[in-house]
Amino acid sequence: LPVVTCGITHGISMFADVWIDPGDVVILPDMMWGNYNMIFGLRKAARIRSYPIFTSSGAFNVTAFEEAVKDEARKNKKITVLLNFPHNPTGYTATHQEGDQIVTILTGIAKSGNHVLAVTDDSYFGLFYEPETLKESLFARLCGQDPRLLAVKLDGCTKENFVWGLRVGFITYGLQAKNDLAATYDALEKKTAGCIRGNISNASHLGQSIVLKSMQNENFPGEKQDKFNILKKRANKVKAVLSDAKYQDAWDVYPFNSGYFMCIRLKSVNAEKLRLHLLETYGVGLISIGDDNLRVAFSCLEENDIQELFDIVLQGVQDLS
Amino acid sequence: LPVVTCGITHGISMFADVWIDPGDVVILPDMMWGNYNMIFGLRKAARIRSYPIFTSSGAFNVTAFEEAVKDEARKNKKITVLLNFPHNPTGYTATHQEGDQIVTILTGIAKSGNHVLAVTDDSYFGLFYEPETLKESLFARLCGQDPRLLAVKLDGCTKENFVWGLRVGFITYGLQAKNDLAATYDALEKKTAGCIRGNISNASHLGQSIVLKSMQNENFPGEKQDKFNILKKRANKVKAVLSDAKYQDAWDVYPFNSGYFMCIRLKSVNAEKLRLHLLETYGVGLISIGDDNLRVAFSCLEENDIQELFDIVLQGVQDLS
Question: Residues 189-218, chain B: which have Cβ within 8 Å of A?
Fold first, then answer.
């Protein structure tokens, strides 16, 4: 059974408390949610190994992923791989083919003798806007592949259902064991729940009750679909707007097909400088990531404001050039 | 400003994450909430130093407290003292005089050169049933006593206000500093909030909103007083019932004057055996603590059921004798 956490962040940090020792390696893409670094790097003193998330042609960089995993598998008996689709910040979800390759790589590593912890952060699950992307969590495919491969799913019900601040998340384990599968799951559940007990006692009861009740309501599926349609329209509008050639000197667009966010790579100005300029001059709030990248939360943009937003960003780039 | 936590347990564990290193000493009474051991002992690998909470005459054992504090202060530059009034499990709150002595002892240790972290867990604050007990948190008296004494208050608004499961708690710091007091508080707030960010992102927004709204309601003070009166009546009824001499061969009553709980010390039977016997034979659920103690949550007992409960416990003792 899933163990309830105080949101998915808490799921990640409880996973880290139960499973990560100082010096362990955690394999993550070079673009990632900053809090991973806080949780794994700062709190747990783990070493984060990055790989470039995209190929130059805009696909998930399976080759770089495989190299990083194999390299770390040579150096460490135990490796931890965190997969986050839809991805924060890029809004990318792996295709069916890329998903198969990821599963094959991790299973192969486990079969060759490494202990593999494969963790999926499914915070934005369900918000898939394109036919070619995976529509299920990689967790399902990773379960039961090998006794040395433990699949861990971290998900929530609040972001998926378009409510925030209720802080309801889940940790779910999937594994293969020759004997005593039930006893093994029971032990994992008790260890994890014990860790939560020693951290927060338990998660908000009220949040859980509200989510459950809302999901039992007959209007729930329809309302959820309506919200999905709104986000999908916004994502498509972003793509349409950004196909305009006038932006191409200012930035490249990272691939995106899902989730809440998308990113652009600036060609001529510093991302943090531009962020501050946009905020101070135009009252536009974006997130800078590293020197070159800006994250746009299209999920919070009205469809009709999308054109204007990117025109302001372009103006900002020109102001600073 | 207080930092919001996901309940007081989370306040304790965030305090521990920010302030406690492996091997640090945490001074606690011999009777205590079991989760302290999980948080400080198991999670943080701190060493717990106990002192007997009561004298044989039923007062807070200031002498034993002082001995433990001074002994650890000799061995460690930094000591952490956790004070929990009203106390779980005994329901004891220090008297005004005992409170003064505690503050004097801790201030003296700080003035003599030790770094003292004095933490108050005020989970059951306000539920004081006797005139002689402290009616304010020791936190207030510990603030500003010495630059080497950091007072930390962990409290909540849900237990105090008779709601549970909302998971809303607070961490508040109180200190003395020669310069830059505001900057020091700002740094403490940021460090602590950062630790929470890396653990759960943030606490339930809904719980906070509900508590705030309920407190703004004009009926709130009256309703809170009504609930207090009910608990106080139950506490007094427990005292009246237990003054009957028929129980005196079976157990002693630990002092209590506040909170949700009280404890008895069994004279002739094992506490865990009795607990199981009461549960299986009479459907009565109590908590055993160590070999000799049973905790009774009189807060959840109707006044009219109190006599019957203790008669069942006595019957249970006689069954096993």
Answer: 194, 197-207, 210
